[in-house]
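Progress report, Aim 2. The chain analyzed during this reporting quarter is listed below.
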Amino acid sequence: MTYASRFCFLFALLVTLNLASPGAQAQEGQHGHGHAQWHEKFYNKLMRKDTKTSCCNLSDCRPTQSRMIDDHYEVLVDEEWVPAPQDVIQNVAAPDGGAHVCAPKQLGSNKGKLYCVVLPPET
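Predicted structure tokens for the chain:
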């Protein structure tokens, strides 16, 4: 393999990885992303524990990641890990078996606010 062909290969690889990365990030907890896919089947049935109203406001719910830190769960919301209080965790499983969050765009006074969290089943 010549130097030029190696360079072209590495350049193409870097471009491919760079293009794949933003899509993957947008899928994980970004406001509005992935909502339409699950709205009718799942999100519109979720009810907030505190207000007994819908968790969903047409774009607030989306697929995300979750993790256990010490004695509490956190979910990825708009690129930041946010603690999930017990009172927002729903006692249901998502149709895809993944984590989902319903939360406003994390700006200003809404930073850290969660309406509902669905965790994946524990194994």
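DSSP finds two helices and six strands in the chain. The chain has one domain: 27-118. These observations will guide the mutagenesis work planned for the next reporting period.
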